[in-house]
Amino acid sequence: xxxxxxxxxxxxxxxxxxxxxxxxxxxxxxxxxxxxxxxxxxxxxxxxxxxxxxxxxxxxxxxxxxxxxxxxxxxxxxxxxxxxxxxxxxxxxxxxxxxxxxxxxxxxxxxxxxxxxxxxxxxxxxxxxxxxxxxxxxxxxxxxxxxxxxxxxxxxxxxxxxxxxxxxxxxxxxxxxxxxxxxxxxxxxxxxxxxxxxxxxxxxxxxxxxxxxxxxxxxxxxxxxxxxxxxxxxxxxxxxxxxxxxxxxxxxxxxxxxxxxxxxxxxxxxxxxxxxxxxxxxxxxxxxxxxxxxxxxxxxxxxxxxxxxxxxxxxxxxxxxxxx
Length: 324
Ligand SMILES: [Mg+2]
Hints:
Blueprint: H1 7-21, H2 28-47, E1 53-56, H3 69-83, H4 92-103, H5 106-112, H6 119-128, H7 139-147, E2 151-155, H8 160-170, E3 178-180, H9 182-185, H10 195-198, H11 234-243, E4 251-255, H12 258-266, E5 270-274, E6 285-287, H13 293-296, H14 304-323
Parallel strand pairs: 1-2, 1-4, 2-3, 4-5, 5-6
The structure holds magnesium ion.
Pfam family, one: Hydrolase
Protein name: Suppressor of disruption of TFIIS
Organism: Dendrobium catenatum
């Protein structure tokens, strides 16, 4: 996994410097002064990074809406409403849309109306039958993501299994430092008071095995009602900011949903509407395709060239000092 802000590279370079110091005898003071100057210069570069974290929605953001996954998902939801909840067929399409608009996801709306069903069963039915084979590996996006120096997180309303399948199909499973998904925001851990404990709820893709959380326990302890926490609720975004320990002013939030972008802006995030050429309320930038990210937001890579030049120059200069 690439380092976040260059600090590991600075550390190893300094460690190498210190090992060299033992070989230099009487020239310690000159080299120490030289090192201190370099450290100050490097810290000024790494600390000056404009953005520390990039928060990505996944569906219709990391791959285009035109893929057809969205349509297939909606069909599966409507089938579930008919077949498992026995909702009158003629009511389903309208109800599906209205609940999505009102509650963030149709699933959250169904729960709020009092329909009782198992979360995992719903996700298995709705996502488990998607035609994932239409998603293809995206090496261009993979290279872009890996070249970004910031911490990168997925922030989605979908369940963990769906996230794994999509990222694997796109070839992006190694590109993110963690995932905030349905299970993250709807597990007992989110009711803990301290962020340290909630931090454990963030699924780590580094470990290749996402954390298992109990998604059945979604009863809000303060109200006693079943409630699903999801975008675009401000509470969902603020909870994410808290448990991921991110500074919203130094975080960019990418999402294809205008209402999610508006809520993200309300929470203090920098925002990018993806899949649109027109700004929406609360959006700082537009991105027709995630592939255009370098042209639209070059500031993400700000300071990277300077850091590389500094490290290269320092390594060469050190070698000169040591050999002198
Ligand atoms: Mg989306």
